[in-house]
Amino acid sequence: MSEGVASPRRSRGSELSLELVPTGISGLDKLLLGGFPRGALVLLAGNPGTGKSTIAAKFLYEGAVRGSEPGIYVNFVETKKDFMVHMNMLGMDLQRLEEKGLFHYKEALTIVDEDALVAQLEKILQLVAETGAKRLVVDSVTAMLQIIRDRARIRELVQNFFVNGVKQMDVTTVLIAEHPYGAKTVGYGIEEFIVDAVIILRFETHQGKVKRILELRKARWAPIRQAEIPFYIRPGIVVELSLPEAPEEVPPLDLTRRFNVASAIAEFSRRTPVCTVRSKVTELKELASAVFTIPRGAQVILGHYPTLDSKHVISLVVAALITRYKPKITVMSAKSSPTSFHNLVRCLLNLAHHDRETAERLAARHLSIYSFNPTAYTLTEIYDMIRTTVDRDNPDIFILEGVDILEVFADQREYQELVYNLMLRNKKRRVTSIYTFSSYSREEFYRRLAATMADVAIYIGEPHFLLESDHVGQSYTVEFAGLFGRVETLIILNTELLFRSGCIG
Questions:
Q1: pLDDT at res. 144
Q2: Whole-number Å distance between alpha carbons of 48 and 181
Q3: CATH: 3.40.50.300, 3.40.50.2300, 3.40.50.11540, 3.30.428.10. Which one for 249-500?
Q4: How much is the pTM?
């Protein structure tokens, strides 16, 4: 089903069909089995500033752009100029649609008595008929009904205009309502009973950070499996819901394309003495065996002893993989700056290829690095940043450094949901992913592993100082548990050479 084009959904055993009107809002249509029913009345309520007008405008915009459906926005609280400027900043050019006759804005700020209100509503019905409008927004029904004092008259007006009026004209209508903090009912309480769907928007705060939540309280045509969903408002996409990933869509691992980290590092060590691999298996062909294989799309958990600088290890892995496989790699870090990361990888590539130009070219072509401060965002926002970055870069390999830091700033369930959904999503996209976090012991590491969807586990133990005639640095015992077994190897990092070469210091 393409977004923005109405789709019929036929009831089993019945000749009746339900025509669904897509909202065009990513995630919401999936929850609603395709959108709102044609002619439905939808109550969109929320705290001030939660995004009610933005979601309603997006509904009209998508109908006009994707389905050529004319829409009308009736506003009792905001001038046309302020409204158009705000929506344009989010990427919705409503003026262009207005010029094409696909968008109409009715400013109703001066309505102060019931007679004027009734006259205005009659004009709206006339405009619907004249323009062939298929979508209507009333912003807000709260302000509109405050003009009428008599409760019985409110019920009568709502019934006549919305139920007997626009609904019978097959106009899908979004009624915006204010929902004050602490209120148990929306508006006068009448609105919730006449509508086909109720959506509540609200804010949640956690550790001083704000998160927008969409609550799907009622949808007569769709089962509500998830009632509360985080959502974002940002230019371009405008509105997007953060839905859990669906496990049934995960393809099998691609065993035809594999990355062998151990043999890549072993090959890298033959180019430069910056590192050495010493394995308990004696022959290189055994070292390069299937035990060390990471298939395309595999999710890898890399645990390391807390005193080990994960940036050094990741940079070595990245430089070795680029040298051998030339993959496109994206790194996101909650610990290290992009500049220091880039400099270290370029320096390692220079040591291996003995040519600065080649090192610069390889790093520029195959590596993208980003960093973020986890204290500045909610976990939902961090997940969205990661997802957006992976979608944009489309890497072969994605590395997230410092997963354990995210756990500090969130409750355990939210943290586990992020890791689970991130792994699930990258599996579906067949993006080989490596997630690093610190752990004092292998036992603790494997307990964490049980709560993830990892296919491969790598644990790097406590670093030990090494002083040999040709090596001054640190040695690490690395345990690799993959699809085909478990094996240990020893990696020696020549930190003295890294210092002398200016890679670290």
A1: 87
A2: 9
A3: 3.40.50.300
A4: 0.82
